[in-house]
Amino acid sequence: MIDPVCNTKVDDKSTSIIHNNKKYYFCCPTCKWAFEQNPKDFIKESPNQ
Ligand SMILES: [Zn+2]
User: Fold this and answer.
1) How far is the CA of 39 from the centre of ligand 1 (A)?
2) CA separation (Å) from 10 to 6, 16, 33?
3) How does pLDDT run across 5-49, given as a tens digit for each residue?
4) Cα(2) to centroid of ligand 1, in Å?
5) Secondary structure element (H or E) that encloses residue 3, with its range
6) What's the gap in Å between 8 CA and the centre of ligand 1?
7) Which end of the chain is more exposed for a tag (fewer CB within 10 A), N or C?
8) How far is CA 23 from CA 5, 9, 44, 48, 49, in A?
9) What spacing in Å lies between the alpha carbon of 19 and ligand 1's midpoint?
10) Where are the alpha helices (DSSP H) in the chain?
11) pTM across the whole model
């Protein structure tokens, strides 16, 4: 698993949340908080590719 906020490797016992039916893992509550504030900033999706 990769923390989408800081791109650190995390394991599946780390803090996680479900967003748009996808599970995201975080290294620390601060990264989780940052993601929750603005998930789109951290989700790299390219719908046209
Ligand atoms: Zn992090």
Assistant:
1) 14
2) 10, 10, 16
3) 999 999 999 999 999 999 999 999 999 999 999 999 999 766 665
4) 9
5) none
6) 6
7) C
8) 14, 15, 14, 22, 22
9) 16
10) 29-37
11) 0.83
